[in-house]
Amino acid sequence: MEENQNEEQLLEAMTETTDYRVTVGNALEKGAPRATKEEIIEAIRGVFDPEIPVNVYDMGLIYDIDLIDNGDVHINMTLTAPGCPVAGILPQQVAEAVAALEGAGKVTVQIVWEPLWTIDRMTEEGRAMIDIF
Which of 43, 74, 67, 47 is nearest to 59 (CA)? Predict the structure, then answer.
């Protein structure tokens, strides 16, 4: 049920240019250690598009990772195409992966459509994974 609702919200965001965001996790206690950007990237690398054997970070789908002073994390990500069949689940999976880290507070993943994703956004590691040079 939740997956269908996420997909419906994302389709609405694509057609009406409304924001599509997923927020997971809880605020950290004051003074608690904070997750590092490197730890966050490694967590994101655990999320794969089931149709492509490359994680979403190395695919170049993650545009920005903003670490807030209180431990919250804001991530801007895109999709390879607006009609991506797993569009309703990937942002949720990214948010959950990062929120599972010790030192991550509330994690918000926002879908952005500009700039559009192109294969040029892939990391060298991502290109090697699917042999694109």
Answer: 47
